[in-house]
Known about the structure:
The protein is of the alpha/beta class. 40% of the residues lie in helices and 21% in strands. The protein has five helices and four strands, in the order αβαβαβαβα. β1 (20-25), α2 and β2 (43-49) form a beta-alpha-beta unit. It is globular and about 35 Å long. The mean pLDDT is 88.
Amino acid sequence: IDSARKFVESLKWYYPDTKFVIMISMLKSKKLDEFVKEIAQIADKIIYTQLADASRSYEVDEFKAVMKPYDCDFEVFKDPKQAYLRLLGYNKPSIVCGSLYLLCYLK
Length: 107
């Protein structure tokens, strides 16, 4: 989570008045709630997608539960490619982060 905190601090430093559309996916071995707590600070919207191997990643319903305490708009997709197309459709500053496994689906 230190890396998420440092990442958010860096973005706030370089882009102080910018909110981002952030696409994420995360393995269950990571702390999704703490990660979301950090990135929600800079998010205009969060797009969550689960990996094809859903047994290793948080499912969309688990993500919805984590988002309840945050005043941040979000969407969920089971298909990473659909999530990515949605991200591109916003035509706003965007970030893809979380699990590096997500990149395999976006090539």
